[in-house]
C-alpha cells in the first residue's frame, strides 16, 4: 500500500474521491478506488471528502510509540497546532504531547527561519519565475504535471527538512519526528535526496486518535513551553502568503508577488503561467488558507476561519519573542527532478468512439457531461477507460437507464399485476396485467388514491414492525376475485408495492375438491353405517340358531343317556 489509499471493504463506488481529485490520480478497478502512486501529489482532497471512512493512511504511530520506550525522540511541531482544538491557551497542546511521552519538542518554524535568507537570494535571481517550494504537494504537482517549470522551483528544502537537519546536528543519536497537518510530508521524507533526515511523520489526526486512546484531553492539559522556538518569520510560512510576508515583502519590488491557494486554482494558474511576461515571485499552497486546512487535521472541529483566527492569535502572542538559542548552520539547498507520467493523454479517435458507444453515447446529445463518474465530460471518462483508469459501469446515467429498461421489461411483461404507490397511496405505476385484473385503464387511475379508486385496501395488512412485508390471500369483492397478495413498504423511497396474483380459479377448484371430499366422506359414512346394521342383523340370526341347536343337542344327549341305563 502507498502512503494514501482506500479500504476495499469500505469503498462504496460513490466516485466522490475521483470527482474531487484535481489531477485524477485515482483509478477504479473491480469497483474499488485505488490511488496511483506515481500520479498522486499528496494533496489529500480524497481523504477530506470520503463519506465512507474508507481512507487508509500509512501510519508511523506504532513505531513512534516503541521509540518513546527505548530511544531518545525529538518532536518537530508544525506551527499550525493551535488549529487542532478549542484551547484556552495554544500551548496546552504541548502539555498534551508531553503526556504522550515526548520530552523534547521544538517549533518547526526554526527551520523556516533557516531557509528565509536563501529565499531572499532566489528573489534576486535571473529566473523569470521563482516558485516557492515549501508546499510538498505543489512541488509534486510541478515535478509530475508541469516538469517544464521544475527549473523555476526555488532550490530550497522545506522548513520541515531544514529543522530536521538542525535537530540531527543537535541530537545526533535521537529519532526525529515531525507532526503537522500535511499528508504530502509523509511522501516528502521518502525522497532520496532528503531521506533519513526525518525518521517519522505524524498527522494531527493520528495524534488525536492516540490522545483519545490515552484519555488525554488537550483542552484540559497544562500549558507547557517549547524546548526551542523560532520566530514569526518561520511561523508565517503555514499561512497563505506567509512566506512572502516574512521574506520578500520589503524587497525592491523588482518582482510581482502572486499568492494562490487550493490545488484547483494552482492548476489553473500553472496552465496559464506561460502567458506571464514579467518577473514573478509565486507562492502556492495546495490547501485553502494554507496549512491549517491540511488533510491531516480534519478531526478538528474548528471551521476554516476559526483555524485562521487561532493561528493568528498565536502569532500575535509571540510577535515579540525571539529565539535565544544559537541555530547550527545547515545547507538548505536541494534539487528537484522531472518525473512526468501519462495523464489521460491522447486516445485514437476510433477507440474513443468505440468506448463512447459502449457507454450508450451514440451522438453529442447522449454526452450528458454530468460529472457523476468523477470526470468533467463523457469524453474525459472514455479516455480514462482507455487508459484503464475507469470502468464503463461508472456511468451512472447508463446504469440508471439500463436498470430502468430492465425494470420496465419486468414490470410490463410479468403476468402478475403490479401496483406501486407513493407514501400517500397515489398510484405511480400500474402495469398491463394490473389493468386487466382490476378491469381499469392506467390513465384512469394514475395518481389517484389506490384504495379510493379501486375500493380495495390490502395495505392495511402491513405490519411495519415486521419488515413491512405481507404475503397472504385477499378478496377483491368488487369483482368477486381471490388474490395471492405480496405487499411491501420501502422506507427509503417511501413507496408501497403490491403484487397481485389471481387465484380465483385455483381457489374454486380447491373449494370443489373440498366439497367432493366432504361428499365422499359422507357416502363412506353411510356405507359403513349400513354395513354395521347388516352385521348386527346377521349376528342376531346367528345367535338364535345357535341357541336352538344347543337345546336340541341337550335333549338328544339325555335320550341317549337314558337308553344306556336300561341295558
From TrEMBL:
| Superkingdom field | Bacteria
The residue stretches assigned to a coiled coil in this entry are: none
Tell me yes or no: is Transcription among this UniProt entry's keywords. no
Q: What Gene3D superfamilies has UniProt attached to this entry?
A: 3.30.70.20, Electron transport complex subunit B, putative Fe-S cluster (1.10.15.40), Fe-only Hydrogenase (Larger Subunit), Chain L, domain 3 (3.40.950.10), PAS domain (3.30.450.20)
Keyword Nucleotide-binding listed = no
Domain 4Fe-4S positions? 350-412
**Keywords associated with the record:** 4Fe-4S, Iron, Iron-sulfur, Metal-binding
Pfam families this protein is in? Fe_hyd_lg_C, Fer4_10, FeS, PAS_8
Q: Where is the 4Fe-4S ferredoxin-type domain?
A: 2-30, 31-60
- What is this protein called in UniProt? 4Fe-4S dicluster domain-containing protein
